[in-house]
Amino acid sequence: MRIGIGIPNTIPGTDARLLLDWARRAEARGFAFVSTIGRVAYPSWDSLTALAGVAGATTEIGLLTNAVLAPTYPSAVLAKVAGTVAGLSGGRLTLGLGVGARESDYLPVGLDFASRGAAFDRQLAYLRRAWQGVAVEAGDFPDEIRPVVGSVPEVPLLIGGHSKRAVRRTVEHAAGWTGAGGGPSRAEPTVKEIRAAWSAAGRVGEPRLLGLAYFSASAGDLGDAYLRSYYAYAGSHAATIAEGAVRTPDRIRGIVREFESAGLTELTFTPTVAEVAEVDRLADLVL
């Protein structure tokens, strides 16, 4: 089980410079990667921009978005920004992508929420061509059909979501899948579907399968109000998510075993408290 830790890029009030200190500490303590979560319509630091900064502040630790709402970016812009982070980091970026469940994240960018799935399918094919240096379409400007990105290191993709379409996208386009929340019991059925579809498609090797656990290693229930705010769109389910965060040494250690038993191969602990000391508290428990 590869274990990573999220940076607190979505916790309101977090100084952006804290993200760099957090990542340096995570690298020093031996986490396999740092990850982000992200929304558009929420007071937060952008995932890919934050990881560009982290790339310059660290040397070896992996970088992971978990997950970027891909259709909220124009395809060429996403290809260029992600390719730039991959280049700056020396190929350390894994790009977790999804479509999201909140219409409010699509309204600020003027995109149709209902058609996000079809847009995502087109985008996944576009990204691969762009990173391979293939000339991509340029609308009404045929003389401008050319690659949009320079030489880019491999950018592995993880696909988020629990639908049949997410399983298909994982097998067709990605290195693996991310549960992006919901706990081991919610992830397990999708993990089984992906493994079966992966084998049926003749994919070589094993898929990467990433789980997410919200945590606070501080005393008390710090971070509860933040989670309820972040997931307010989900109504009463926000309370389920908040109450599912692991906050004691026994639960933090136990959730690793639970995700592993559910078939996950990687796990990221996503913080609910923006204190760098949380990195050390977690490392002492799970590394």
Q: Would you mind describing this structure in some detail?
A:
With 287 residues, the chain is α/β, with parallel strands linked by helices. The protein has a single domain, classed as TIM Barrel. It is built from 10 helices and 8 strands. It has helices spanning 16-29, 47-57, 75-88, 116-131, 164-173, 183-200, 224-230, 237-243, 249-261, 277-286, and strands at 2-6, 33-36, 62-69, 93-98, 157-160, 176-178, 208-215, 266-271. An 8-stranded parallel β-barrel has the order 1-2-3-4-5-6-7-8, surrounded by 7 helices. Helix 2 (47-57) links the parallel strand 2 (33-36) and strand 3. Helix 1 packs across helix 2, helix 3 (75-88) packs across helix 4 and helix 6 (183-200) packs parallel to helix 9. It starts with a strand and ends with a helix. The relative contact order is 0.15. The model has no long low-confidence stretch (mean pLDDT 93).
Write the layout of secondary structure elements.
Elements: E1 2-6, H1 16-29, E2 33-36, H2 47-57, E3 62-69, H3 75-88, E4 93-98, H4 116-131, E5 157-160, H5 164-173, E6 176-178, H6 183-200, E7 208-215, H7 224-230, H8 237-243, H9 249-261, E8 266-271, H10 277-286
Parallel strand pairs: 1-2, 1-8, 2-3, 3-4, 4-5, 5-6, 6-7, 7-8
InterPro entries: Luciferase-like_dom, Luciferase-like_sf, SsuD_RutA_monooxygenase
Domain Luciferase-like: 1-234
Pfam family, one: Bac_luciferase
